[in-house]
Design brief:
Strand order of the largest sheet of chain A: 9-8-7-10-6-1-4-5-11
Structural class of chain B: alpha/beta
Helix content of chain A: 25-40%
Number of strands of chain A: 13
Largest sheet of chain A: 9 strands, mixed
Bound molecules: flavin-adenine dinucleotide
CATH class of the largest domain in chain B: Alpha Beta
Strand order of the largest sheet of chain B: 7-11-6-1-4-5-12
CATH superfamily of the largest domain in chain B: HUPs
Number of domains of chain B: 2
CATH class of the largest domain in chain A: Alpha Beta
CATH topology of the largest domain in chain A: Rossmann fold
CATH superfamily of the largest domain in chain A: HUPs
Number of strands of chain B: 18
Largest interface: A-B, 80 and 93 residues
Oligomer: heterodimer
Shape of chain B: elongated
């Protein structure tokens, strides 16, 4: 099994988001960059599949210089090698997926894994877009994955609103990971040392033939509307509870 | 139909989710008289009345047997063929598990830009649509322009209001070349989880518990309050990780993002990742024993106190209110 894992580097979820002076992006100074949490499930799943069926796990990421660190972290978790599509351009989902699909085409593969969405732009598009570009099937938001190498088919359980959906499909395919799929491992010290020597190949958008004109542009970014400061009730619980219900009924008019 | 909005929606046994009606009402407001609904499955036609009432001028029902079970590749190719036939300028999908799976696949086939999980869409003077969508799980809001000729949007449930009229939807026959459809990825089974009564992303009221609940046995207190309010029950992440409640309860940046009328955060401290998932709530109520808990900064109303005293008292007060009504 040759598995490609598509990884994005994103601001840590504890980051307080501040706006940049251009009004259309975030201020990036002081941000701690991490692997997108959902992509960690994808990496872990790939490593477990390799443990079961042998093969190779190749991690691919698009972004500026700092992204190499995210790739090195996945190598320390156990991935075999990395490919860094290096660019300072702010790509939309469509272009990022086009770049990742272009690399995948050059590499060839049995399976592509990635997170169900990146926690920065929350678009949840890259997985399905890659699969359309490569003309292969997809299954998204996966909680459980089983692979049958004899029939070259997958059975996946995906999360719906209040239900689990069981999906069957042939592979090569794209699978996007949901929290619950597995418990991502931590890098061990020997693996961190080994990761330093593993190959990270650099690719460019030009060489891959990706144009940098986005289809979707962010024209403005604003802070969420602030709430008026809270009415805080203290004292006797029974009185406070009655006051709360009165406020929700009379003032907020939601009960 | 060239200026139409195609509203792609899911139906099951003739029933549609509320977000379908929200999309139709929104589309009707943006392009009056130019809304075409598309549904799939053998029962597709039986949704005609309700779709018309809420905003569909026309309806395309793909009622062939092959559409009885969802297939991302099969359904996406069908939507592509419909779009080729009607040449709409905009498509809308629900930002549900179904729509989020299908919409990007259609966007790829049509080489069009997609804005996911939009909370607002408005029309510019030139007729192009502009969307607002939360990013960083609601820590910021982006205004997005889609530059491709066809604009695609997925719409977050529970944000748009619905408008009922006496319109009726005209059936529109759109032949599909079934031979060109592949159905590689196929749904073979759907298991509903009996535990959830109201789905969190669609709930009007959510009662949510955190580590302050102390243990799984105490969630009965929240179930009682939820029952009095007709609410859904949710939780912070550690509580779901501990197995006190199912994973589907987990709300926040790495869980469900919710937008109810009222969100009760009970024994939840208000970590930034949790707040990210609830910022779309109209009102936030915090119940916490620590007056310094960050949740009070995000709340509209708060009670400082021991939840084990306060929650039953709130439940009682709600019962009294409901009895009066
Ligand atoms: C990558 C990442 C992603 C994350 N994603 C999420 C996410 O999506 N959702 C999420 O929720 N968390 C998430 N977290 C975890 C988050 O950082 C917090 O740890 C978590 O939200 C805290 O949960 P809590 O409020 O239930 O518990 P605590 O922070 O322990 O708070 C418990 C609260 O209960 C109060 N309390 C205790 N006893 C009582 C009582 N008797 N009466 C009243 N109040 C009482 C306390 O005062 C306290 O405020 C994430 C963390 C990371 C690192």
């Amino acid at each position: 099994m040759k598995i490609l894992v598509m990884v994005k580097q994103v601001p840590d979820t504890a980051t307080r988001i501040r706006m940049a002076p251009d009004g259309a992006s975030i201020a990036t100074d002081g941000i701690k960059w991490v692997i997108n949490p959902y992509d960690e499930f994808a990496i872990e799943e790939a490593l477990q599949i390799r443990e079961r069926f042998q093969g190779e796990v190749v991690v691919i990421s698009v972004g500026p210089q700092r992204v190499e660190e995210a790739i090195r972290q996945t190598l320390a978790m156990g991935a075999d090698r990395g490919i860094h599509v290096k660019t300072d351009a702010g790509l939309d989902s469509y272009q990022a997926a086009a770049a990742l699909a272009a690399v995948a085409r050059l590499e060839t593969f049995d399976l592509i894994l990635t997170g169900k969405q990146a926690v920065d732009d929350d678009a949840a598009q890259v997985g399905p877009l890659i699969s359309v570009f490569l003309e292969i099937p997809q299954v998204t938001v996966v909680l459980k994955l089983s692979i049958n190498p004899d029939t070259q088919r997958l059975v996946a359980e995906r999360e719906l609103e209040g239900a689990i959906e069981v999906v069957e499909l042939p592979y090569p395919a794209v699978v996007t990971a949901q929290r619950g799929l597995n418990e991502p491992r931590y890098p061990t010290l020997p693996n961190i040392m080994k990761a330093k020597k593993k190959e990270v190949r650099v690719e460019s958008l030009e060489a891959l033939g990706i144009d940098t004109v986005p289809k979707v542009r962010v024209t403005a970014l604003s802070e969420p509307p602030t709430r008026p400061s809270a009415k805080i009730l203290t004292g006797d619980p029974i009185e406070a509870a009655q006051q709360l219900v009165n406020l929700l009924h009379d003032e907020a008019k939601v009960l | 139909m060239a200026d139409d909005i195609l509203v792609i929606l899911q139906q099951e046994a003739g029933k549609v989710r509320r977000v379908a009606l929200e999309m139709l009402s929104l589309a009707q407001q943006l392009r009056p008289g130019q809304v075409t609904a598309v549904t799939f499955g053998p029962d597709a036609e039986s949704t005609k009345d309700v779709l018309g009432r809420y905003g569909a001028d026309r309806m395309i029902a793909l009622n062939q047997d092959v559409f009885a079970h969802y297939s991302s590749d099969g359904f996406a190719e069908a939507v592509r063929q419909i779009q080729n036939a009607v040449a709409a300028t905009a498509l809308m999908f629900p930002a549900t598990a179904w729509g989020k799976d299908l919409a990007p696949r259609v966007a790829g086939l049509l080489q069009a830009g997609l804005a996911s999980d939009c909370t607002e869409i408005r029309s510019e003077s030139n007729g192009r649509l502009v969307a607002t969508r939360p990013v960083y799980a609601g820590k910021a809001f982006a205004t997005v322009q889609i530059d491709s000729p066809v604009q695609i949007f997925s719409i977050r449930p529970n944000i748009q209001s619905v408008k009922e009229t006496n319109r009726s939807a005209e059936p529109f026959d759109c032949p599909i070349d079934l031979q060109a459809l592949s159905f590689q990825s196929k749904v073979v089974e759907v298991r509903t989880q009996a535990t959830e009564t109201v789905e969190l992303t669609e709930a009007e009221i959510i009662v949510s518990g955190g580590r302050g609940m102390k243990g799984p046995e105490n969630f009965q207190l929240l179930d009682n309050l939820a029952q009095a309010l007709g609410a859904a029950v949710g939780s912070s992440r550690p509580v779901a990780d501990e197995g006190w409640v199912p994973h589907s309860y987990h709300i926040g940046q790495t869980g469900k993002v919710v937008s109810p009328n009222v969100y009760f955060a009970i024994g939840i401290s208000g970590a930034i990742q949790h707040l990210a998932g609830i910022s779309g709530s109209k009102y936030i109520v915090a119940i916490n024993s620590d007056p310094e808990a960050p949740i009070f900064k995000a709340a509209n109303y708060g009670i400082v106190g021991n939840l084990f005293d306060v929650v039953p008292a709130v439940t009682e007060a709600v019962h009294r209110l409901k009895a009066e009504q």
